[in-house]
Known about the structure:
single chain
Amino acid sequence: MEIGGHVSRSIAGYGTKSAEQLASFFMEKRPDADKNMVLRLASFYVAEGDAEGINSDVAFIQMCLETGFLRFGNLVTPDMHNYCGLGAMDAAHPGERFATEQLGVRAHIQHLHAYGTPANVKLNNTLIDKRYKYVNPRGKAPDVFGLAGTWAMDKQYGAKLDALLTQLENY
């Protein structure tokens, strides 16, 4: 694992940071967080990302942005294990729920898979992301910049992810 240096903005591919490096980044931003839980989540992001050919650095950073570094708020609550706001639209649609941390991470990785890979690239794990089928066309966001206005309505969404990835490069 490299220390410092470029982190890819591509959704498909593999992260360069270890679970420990991801957790160190997170803990510096939010020192009051449960370090064991953060490391566990980081480990799930690396393993699930590797299983599906999705960049775990991007997915982990997106979780940080979406949850406010696991502070949550708004519609999604910690017990939902929904780390990317899947299906969270309004009070009547607060978002998807997953039974475990790992399944929540898997659904996030699978949703990124739909955005970042073409239709001929199949999932390796059983599909649990109920919203996967709604991503049309498949592969419409090959990098974090393509998520602006698609994954999130915020036109600066890609730039926000990019800025966090730049900070991650120092770990």
